[in-house]
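Justification of computing resources. Each target in the renewal requires a structure prediction run like the one illustrated here; the chain below, 103 residues long, is used simply to show the kind of job we budget for.
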Amino acid sequence: MKREFLEELGLDKEVIDKIMAEHGKTIQNLKQEQEVFDQLKSEKEQLEQQIQQLNDKLTRTRTRTRTRTKTRTRTRTRTRTRTRTRTKARTRTSSRAKINRDA
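Resulting structure tokens:
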């Protein structure tokens, strides 16, 4: 608000001074609120970045865990298969040995 605008309306100088003082208080309050808003906005952006970084880290960790789990499962399956095959071979050999002994 400009002083000239109030003078053109025909207001006295004392009235204009009071209006301008009150307007100044309002402007100061608005500036303070704007500063608080800007700080909160900045803080929000930083927190959003942290969330994104943590989500990315979580995604990488899950991917690594899935890969490790798949590798372990494959290894276990191969080991079990080999163990079963060896056990069957030993059983056959043992059976043959018994048959040969008995004969």
